[in-house]
């Protein structure tokens, strides 16, 4: 049932891109959070993807060519890491978190980057939906052949 493997691959992509969209939305919503539980400004988070393959590409290709590969394929979110880039310093002396010189440390979130990342994740999500629907349509047509 190769089409089920293809559906699983698309489904893993959907799940991974949804996680990426969630993290992007969290970054945007916290783009002006100057104090977290730790006392520091919010630090941008990023999603790290990892292939869900077993072995190198050559090993997987060799086993697939022999019809002996049935392992899990696709992508998974391996971790969500924090961006270590420096915080932005903004002069705002009336802000409650301003230091003695009137500067506030703002999160290292760039709204343009987050918007582009969100658009990219949305397009990848749409591509996986399209692939999933194409696989489903092919399976349906295959079942209709037997009628």
What does this protein look like?
By secondary structure, this protein is of the alpha+beta class. It has one domain. The chain has a two-stranded antiparallel sheet. It has a two-stranded antiparallel sheet with strand order 3-4. Helix 1 runs antiparallel to helix 3 (111-145). It contains 3 helices and 4 strands; from the N terminus they run αβαβββα. It is elongated. It is 49% helix and 16% strand.
Summarize the SSE layout with pairings.
Blueprint lengths: L1 H28 L15 E7 L5 H9 L9 E8 L5 E4 L11 E4 L4 H35 L2
Mean pLDDT, all residues: 89
Number of domains: 1
Oligomer: single chain
Principal-axes geometry comes out as elongated
Strand content: 15-25%
Tell me the strand order in the biggest sheet. Answer: 1-2
Radius of gyration over alpha carbons?
22 Å
Helix content: 40-55%
Described by strand count, sense and barrel closure, the largest sheet is: 2 strands, antiparallel
Number of helices: 3
- The number of distinct β-strands equals 4
Straight-line N-to-C gap: 20 Å
Uncertain spans, ≥5 residues at pLDDT below 50? Answer: none
**Which sequence of SSEs, written as H and E, runs from N to C?**
HEHEEEH
Class derived from helix and strand content: alpha+beta
